[in-house]
Design goal:
Blueprint (H helix, E strand, L loop, with lengths): L5 E9 L5 E10 L4 E5 L6 H5 L10 E6 L2 E2 L5 H7 E4 L12 H11 L4 H14 L15 H13 L5 E5 L7 H13 L3 E5 L3 H7 L2 E6 L2 E7 H6 L1 H6 L19 H7 L2
Parallel strand pairs: 3-8, 3-9, 6-7, 7-8
Antiparallel strand pairs: 1-2, 1-4, 4-5, 9-10
Helix pairs in contact: 3-4, 3-5, 4-5
Amino acid sequence: MNHPAVELCNLSHLYPDGTVALRDISFTVSQGESVAIIGANGAGKSTLLLHLNGVLATTGGEVRINGVQLAKGTLPYVRRSVGMVFQEPDDQLFMPTVHDDVAFGPLNLGLTGRELERRVQESLHRVGIAHLRGKAPYNLSGGEKKRAAIATVLAMAPEILVMDEPTSGLDPHARRQLVGLLREFPHTRIFTSHDLDMVLELCPRTIVLHEGVVAADGPTEGIFRDDDLLARCRLEKPFSMQGCPVCGKINQRQGDMDQI
C-alpha cells in the first residue's frame, strides 16, 4: 500500500510560555510532491517544519511519515526519511571541513570506507561543491554554505527534503543557482519561504498558514490570485505577478493568468 509521504492530523503545538503556535493542522503531502508553506512572520511555518522530523514534539495530534507514526520508537526511521535543511547553514555546519560535515551523518549511520566516501562525493557533486571539500565551512560564501548544508542532508539519502527559507540571505546569482538545483531534485519537497517567486517557480501547491491555522491549501497560482486571502494573511503577490510601479503595466504572466 502506498502511503502519503507526510500526514498531519490535528497537529497542535503549545510553547512553554503559553504561546499557541499551531492549532489543529491537518493535511497530506503525496510522494514526489513539491509543496510550499507560506505565511507572515509568526504564522507557525518553522514550528510546523520542526515537527516533521521530531525536532519538536507535538502537544496534540499526529505526524505520520510514509505511514509510520512519529513517536520515540520511530524517531530514527523518521530522521532517516526526512532531511531537514535549516534556515541558517551555520546551524548544520560545525566540523573542520566541508567533507567532514557531509560525512558526519553517514558515519553515524555506520557507513565507513569506500561506501562512506562514495556517499560524500555523490552529495558534494550533486550540489556542485566537490572542489570545496577541504575548505573550512566558515570560509564559505552564503551560497556555498547553503549548498554544503544541503549536501549534509543528501548524504543521509532521505526520501523527503524539508527546507526552511532556502533562498534567505542569498544574492541574485546564488539564489538563481540554488533554485535551479532544487528544481532537479526528485524528492518529496516541502519548503517554507518569503521568496514567493521561488514558490511560484518550484511548488505547484501552496499551503497558507495564518495565526497557526491553515487559511488555504491549493494550486499556487490560484492562491496568488486571491487578493482577499493575501490581504487577510498579510502576504503580497510574487514580484513576477505584480504590475510595474513605473508604467503600471501588468506582468505578462499575470495578464495571461487573468484571462484563464
